[in-house]
Structure formats: structure tokens, C-alpha cells
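pasting for ref. prot 1 ->
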Amino acid sequence: MKRIIKYLVFSLLILLSIAIYSGIYFDIPRDKLEKKYATGSSNFLELIDGSKIHYRDEGNSEKPVIVLLHGFNGSLFNFEEMVPFLVDEFRLISIDLPGFGLTGEVPTKNYSTNNSIQVINELTKNLGFKNFSIAGNSMGGGIAWRYAIQYPKKVEFLILLSSSGIYDSEDTKEIQKEDTESPVVWKLMRSSFLSYFLSYYTPKFFATQGLKASVYDSNLATYELANQFHELTLMKGSRRAILSRFSERTYNNQKVDVLKEIQAPTLIIHGKEDNIIPFTSSINLDKYIKSSELRIYPEVGHLPMLEVPEKVAEEIKGFLNKP
């Protein structure tokens, strides 16, 4: 009996060792990923602080500008499915925010919302834009509406796609009840010890599970897309940057009434089956933003611009082209 127990323990240790070893990935050099993914309309802009920002400039240069901001652990590639439906009527500037995509680690190690806002300022100034609309998904939505508050004269329209928000105490309790299926890796990041472990242990399973949790139709969580998420996370320095961004607490004490300061006409879109940010978050945004319109899509998850790109594009065109 003792021999059997020893054998089982030994076997479990071997299996555990294999599981841990298979999840340890080395950094991928930046230039290797740039060669693979910086295609088509990809550009890089070096900022005053030395940050190298990856962005795409697509569409009609004579038409109104929309700046596109991705969510946490995402990239500008999250908008690829939607862009073709908008290029004839708009100029589209999609940005890899500091810490993510092909921007990745930046010299300042500053991955805060405030720094992302400054990146938008410097990039749009460099491209010669005085006024533009801004659209953001998830974390990018939170950056977008805060930008609209800080620079009301610059933002013509605001578009929030399954956006992060800000809540009063009652709303927070209700939203927390619904937030039960967020990706495993996000839950692990809440532990300081485990988050350090994640800077080395990053199995592809995390990318696959995270993507499946983000979309309603699991068929959209393809191997190719999950692999792209995973490889961009592995770019040299990006894992530390992502973990740093996750721990940001700059706006923890911000009050919900700040949403009333948003002046730009706002289109709010949210998937009813969102497992990352419950759609009640957008109901809350619509309640406090003065000039807003809300769309809740059934059978859509956290990435509406990827899941139903044509539908979202038509909503945007209709909203921005109102007489």
C-alpha cells in the first residue's frame, strides 16, 4: 500500500512538473513580432519620452477621424474585423496602448490611464488632428471617456464598446454579483505573489480561455487569434508591463458624478452575454452621461467590434452622421 501511495505521489509530482514546465515561455524579441504583425497600415511613432507607439492609420484621409482604443491585454488588432466597414466614411487611427500589442514595454514604465491619455494627445498632435471622435473597448473605453472629460473641445463624439465605468455603492454590489466568469489569469493577477509568478508562467491556455470568456460564440475564439494574443503577451517586457497596468489604482476614489461632465454625444454599445464587464455597467453609464444612446446586443459578449463588426460599424455611422 505504501509503495502504491509513493508511486501516485511521484506520478503527480511528475505531471505537475510537466504542467509548470509547459507553461513557461521565454520572451519573444520585439523585432521578430514586428516582422510578423506590423503589416499593412502599421506605423510607429517615437514619443518625446522615448516610447515607441504602434498605430495604424487607415481609411479616407479627407473624412472625420475616429481614434480606436483596445481593452486590457488586447491590441489594435481587435478592431481588424470592423475597420473595413468604416474605411470609406472615416479616417481610423487605432493605437496599441503602452504595455500592449506591438507597443509593449515603454522606457518610462508608466502604464497608467493618465499616460495613455498623453499618448493620445501626442499622437493626434503629430498627425495634425485638432478634433476627432474617440472609441474605446473595455479598458480603452474607460480611457476614452476620461479623455473626453479632460479635453471636451477636442472630442466630437464618444463611442463606448463594453466599456469599463464607475459606479456608486449600490451599482458596484450589483455588478460584482454578475461578474463571475472573468478569465482565470485575471483572477490570479489579483494576488501579488501569483502575479509575479505569471511574469514567467504564461501557458497558452490562459490566452485561449481568456478569449473564449470574452466572446459569446466560442467559434470566434480561433487558434490563430488565441496564438496572436499569446505571442504579443510574450514580447520582451510586455508581461511585466501588463501586470503593472493591472495593479493601477489611480481612479479608485473617483465619484460617479464625474460622468455628468462628459459633453460629447455618446454611443454606448454592450453585449448582453459579456462575462468580463456585465452589461449593467453600460446601463449605469447611460444613466449618468447626459447626451447618450444605449444599445444592448443579445448573443454578444465583451468584444462587439469583433463579434458583430458590421452591426457595430452601422451603429457608429448612423450615430456620427446624424443631421
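and prot 2 ->
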Amino acid sequence: MGVVTSDDYPRGTAARRAALRDLLLHHTWVVLRPSPVAGVGVFAVRDIPQGCRDMFSPPHPADEWIAMPRGEVESLPEHARYLVETYCLFDETQYFVPADGFKRMDLSLFLNHSDTPNVVSVDEGDWFEAVRPIAAGEELFVDYGTIVPE
């Protein structure tokens, strides 16, 4: 399935409004809700077919992740440290933090972990793909250990 964004449509107010309507009608798949697993999770608002990669915003050329050493993260104020430690990927030495901080957050950052996920990471988290049909109301899960190859 191809990923559709409003950028795929002509410019102009009426065209942009039509593109938005199409996105809302045909390409809206998920919503945030309290999760019984952990905090907030991502839930299907309608059935998601196996192979769907259109659940989250597509990567944008302006998206940038900055490697921040763990020591720098530990020196941040508690509220900022919480955001980084909760929503950012990390390895043994650093966290990968969005260059614009947390002013914009894609819903994919709210995926909870499962050893038996129903979505998988593609291209180091640029995309997420449904590995099986996901029913409306079901929480989406990813295996955190497979988002970025070691």
C-alpha cells in the first residue's frame, strides 16, 4: 500500500481541503488512548490490513535526529529528561533526539513494546508495517529491539 499525504495533491485552498478530506476519510488509521500495558498507546480506529504502512506520518526530508550522549541527557531538567528517556530510541552511549525537540511528535512515538508485535519497523523507524491484520480497537505494538539494527 502506498503512503498518501496532502503533498500528493495540487496546491490551493480548495485542493488542499480536498486532500485533507481524503486523508481523513481514507488514510486515518490510529488514535492515542490510555494503554493497559503502559501509559499511552496507539490504537486502531478501524481495521488495518496486513502490509499497511500508512498508519503514521511518512518521513519528511526536514526530519533530523541528533545523537545526545547519556551524560548530557542525565544533566537535563527532570521534565526534559523524562521526554527523552520515554520517547527516544537509544543505545549504550546515547539517545537519538528529534532536532526540533518535542514541539511536534508523531503518533509512532507512542507505540508500546511487545515481544509479539503486530507492526514492525522499516528503514530504522521511518515506516511501520502491519505484520498481520489489526482489528479496530486493538493496540499496536512494536518490538523495541528491532527498530534499529544493531
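The chain has three helices and nine strands.
The helical segments are 13-26, 70-74, 78-87.
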